[in-house]
Amino acid sequence: MQSTRLFLLLLTTVGVLSIYDPYRLPDLFKPEHYDLRILTHLNGPDQLCFEGQVKIQFQVFDQTRNITLHAKNLTIDRFEITLNSQSGSICIVNAEFNEDKEFYVLHLCEFLQQNDNYELIIPFKAALKSNQTGYYWSSYHDSLTNQTSYLAVTQFSPTFARLAFPCFDEPHLKATFRVTLGYHRNYTGFSNTAIVKCEDHVTLNNYIWCEHEPIFRTSTYLVAYAVNNLTRVATQSSDTAHNVTFSSWMQPKVVNEGHFLSNFAPKVLSYLENLMDFSFPLHKVDQLAVPTHQFSAMENWGLITFKESSFVHNDREELLESKETKSFTMAHEYAHQWFGNLVTMKWWNDLWLKEGPSTYFGYLTLDSLMPDWGTGERYFGNDLAKFFCQDAINSTISISRNVQDSESIMKQFSPYVYEKGSLTVRMLHKLLGDDVFYTGIRSYVKKHAYGSVVQSDLWQSMQEAVNENRYLTNEIRVSTVMDSWTLQAGYPIVSVIRNYTTAKVKVSQTRFWLEDAEDQPESCWWIPLTFVTQQHADFNDTQAHFWLKCPSTKQTLELLSKPSAEEWIILNPQVTTIYRVNYDDRNWRLIIHTLNSTENFGGIHELNRAQLLDDLMVLAWKNMQSYELAFSLLEYLPREHHYLPWDRILQVLNRYGDLLHDENKQIFKVFMMQLVAPLFERCPSLEFLQTRTTTIEEMALCRLAYAEACRHGLKNCIDQVLAFTLKNDEEQVPVNLRNTVYCTSIEYGNELQFQLMMQRFQNTTIESRKKAWATGLGCSPNFPQLQMFLDYLLQSTEAATNDYYVDAVTSALRRKYVALEATEHILQHATIINGKLKAKNIKRLISLMTLNDMNFVNDKKLSKLKSLKKFKEPLKMALEFGNINQNWLGKRSPEFIRVLKKYV
After folding, report:
1. Among 79, 389, 500, 733, which is least packed, fewest CB within 10 Å?
2. pLDDT at residue 870 is higher than 90
């Protein structure tokens, strides 16, 4: 019963935390309408600013003498503020900013009355900044005029509308908006809706005011506007209920690279509208490709903004997979039109309610519109790999968790929430089946359209669909099941022990930890159990045969299809539910025998093959299975022709390799060469790679083969790359193999080659090439040589070079001969890096530093970083992983090396 009490305590705690939060607005006001006027000045680098006025109509729920709303970094003269009621004006005694909570508080001379309506008018002004939040400026160099062109655009999600105008900046406080923009005639203005009318500015020559159509009730974070002189690529209509018109805008020099996604967008919206059975409510969408952007894109109603590099694509310069990535970004943003825009989470603790479904339906959209790409399975496989690694430590968090201030809200926007959220929606879909799932999803969207929700609202819609279809028994409630996966961190491992005489199966669950400790809390999940048997290998049957219910953690089952003693059974087809599985030794060996001896691997699904490899290696890590057994599973890999199992096992094995040194490192290197050689030999040579590799999966698999073969020193790979670079010029390097070719040529090259590549990096403006060259330069075995390049990148004032620093130093950290020096370079420049790099990139570097330098996590080195904001949380995880790795080296590495030697 202890696990039940813990889970109830967790639910109660979440509820209690939401009762009072000092960073939330008082529950006194309901905004009804905003009339927003913004005048934008883009008159050169010293005159980038805006001024405006917001008129807010709102209702008061209880008597009060204060009005609290959000505002930050705005200049407001309180003597120009007016507050009106139906009976007249109300005087304002004082006004003050609360910088910590980002509040603007008005103190009044009389009480506002319960249920009365008021109108608040606030003028304001501010400088446009370049920090990609609020209303900010960006720029590009126009080669035709040889001048810098400036533009202004908004990024209000999650808490940045308050930087642009005073407002009630919480997602559930929806209101209607009317936006009127003022700007010079040389520019074009955009907002969520189309322009109704324009008129001359009364006092400013050549300035105009353009009023946009009002927008329906929406959250402040989805309001958007922009002023720019970008070039329109195309205008297209769509096969949607309102015949939505699409226009795409970007700087002139990339217009020819914007056609693919410009044409793709109408298809995406049409597909999703049909899938959701709810019409997209607008008549136009403008897509802006902006040179700088806080995210890859932002899903604002009717005005979707993209980071330029996430929208334009050049097949001659960029990876085939990058087109897929950009297409997914677009599909994700359009899925948000239903999940986030139309139906909005009440507060940011439930961010996953918009990011999880949008990620999941983004995958499904690409699978439907671009079926040859095979996106879904590869992306799900990648998300599973990251999840099972990240969620196995103490510092992991649940996807639904309490957040308060802007900083903690921003931290919610992590890949973890997107990916685990998507896996959670996928689990629900596979558990309920198409009919019930889509009935529930469509009901959820229709019922809560233009409103705000908590996760129980989604569960309720799903439960109603379940009841309608009489799918689950009365004791299985959707909310009970799904809360166990969203409100607690971590995941279970299910142990499966067969009785080969009676054909009964004992199953039990416990939370999986990479390292056990005495004080770890008990956890319990409601786990759907679906078995596949060797004679009935139907991996498409993903609906529950049995349940492992809380608080029970053990159960004995009699399978519906009794397997013989010579047949394997596999739990969790397609890894639809996010848990690991450990079988008894005999069942493991039956699975391994099938993978090694039968055609089509006995029908075992590709996702399951990848998971079997991952599970057995991590079970050996924990001494829950032997390395003898784990390595016997690897013997089937020369027969494996699919990307996911190869990608997963190489990630796992390379993590082992990063922990080894000296003689053991060399033994591992020989093993890896032998392992990847068959895969490498199946790929075309560099000269024919582009023409003979036709699908994204084939290309991804060959990129992986070349990268791993050359990285681990396979002579055939290195010789082929060096010979190719000798007889071919830069333009003939296959786009999809640039990273490997550049890295290998630098690693085995000379000083002249390094200098030549660095000159190419400095002299080009093509982002994809600079990225590949930075990655290649990071492979130099000569650190003084590399240091010159790293210093150059850190000293640059161009924002883009920050990403190139990450590319270069990541390559260095993955190579033992310069990894320690690269770690020292990061430590010495930590203050600069804290200011320049994004938190997610710092986290990535710290994780690599931990693998390469076991002493990195000692107190002396940590003390240098504790005061740096972006280093704090990654350091906690680094410390934990460092201890886990140290313990493995002491306890389990001897057996790993002993078995490894048998295969060399």
Report:
1. 79
2. no
SS3 string of 728-775? CCHHHCCHHHHHHHHHHHHHCCCHHHHHHHHHHHHHCCCHHHHHHHHH
In the numeric block, which tokens belong to residue 81?
């503020």
Question: For 65-90, how does the pLDDT look when each residue is reduced to its tens digit (9 = 90+)?
Answer: 999 999 999 999 999 999 999 999 99
pLDDT mean across residues, the chain: 92
Q: Pairing relation of β-strands 188-191 and 225-228?
A: antiparallel
Which structure tokens are listed for 216?
Answer: 């329906």
List Cα–Cα distances, 638 to 368, 533, 563, 642, 683, in angstroms.
32, 25, 29, 11, 13
* The total number of residues written for the chain in this structure: 904
pLDDT tens digits for range 560-603 = 888 999 999 999 999 999 999 999 999 999 999 999 998 889 99
Give the CA count within 13 Å in the CB-facing half-sphere of 852. Answer: 22
DSSP string computed for 631-693: HHHHTTGGG---HHHHHHHHHHHHHHHHH--HHHHHHHHHHHHHHHHHHHHHSPPGGGHHHH-
Neighbour tally for 38: CB within 10 Å = 25
Q: How many CB atoms lie within 10 A of CB 714?
A: 22
- The set of residues, in sequence order, having a beta carbon less than 8 Å from that of 657 and lying 6+ positions away, is 665, 668, 669, 672
Backbone angle region of 23, left / alpha / beta, with phi > 0 → left and psi within -120 to 50 → alpha: alpha
Alpha-carbon gap, residue 510 to 622, rounded angstroms: 14
Determine how many CB atoms are found less than 10 A away from the CB of residue 535.
11
Among the listed residues 401, 370, 375, 302, the one whose alpha carbon sits nearest the alpha carbon of residue 342: 302
Rounded CA gap, 824 and 268, in Å? Answer: 47
Alpha carbon distance 36, 53 (integer Å): 6
Please write down the HEC assignment for all residues of 107-173: EEEEEECCCCEEEEEEEEEEECECCCCEEEEEEEEECCCCEEEEEEEEECCCCCHHHCCCECCCCCC
Cβ–Cβ contacts within 10 Å for residue 441, how many?
A: 26
Q: Are 787 and 768 in contact (CB under 8 A)?
A: no
Kindly state the tokens that stand for 233.
Answer: 């690529």
Q: How far apart are the C-alpha atoms of 238 and 234, rounded to whole Å?
A: 13
The DSSP H or E segment spanning 374 is none
Q: What are phi and psi of 495, to 5 degrees?
A: -95, 135
CA angle 637, 490, 159 (to 5 degrees): 115
- Distance separating alpha carbons of residues 780 and 745, to the nearest angstrom: 9
Token duo for residue 532: 């596949």
Q: Which of 361, 286, 293 is nearest to 331 (CA)?
A: 361
Name the nearest CA neighbour of 535 among 557, 558, 560, 513: 560
The answer to whether the beta carbons of residues 647 and 381 sit under 8 Å apart is yes
Q: Give CB contacts under 8 A, 24+ apart, made by 212-215.
A: 212/178, 212/179, 212/180, 212/181, 213/178, 214/176, 214/177, 214/178, 215/176, 215/177, 215/178, 215/179, 215/301, 215/302
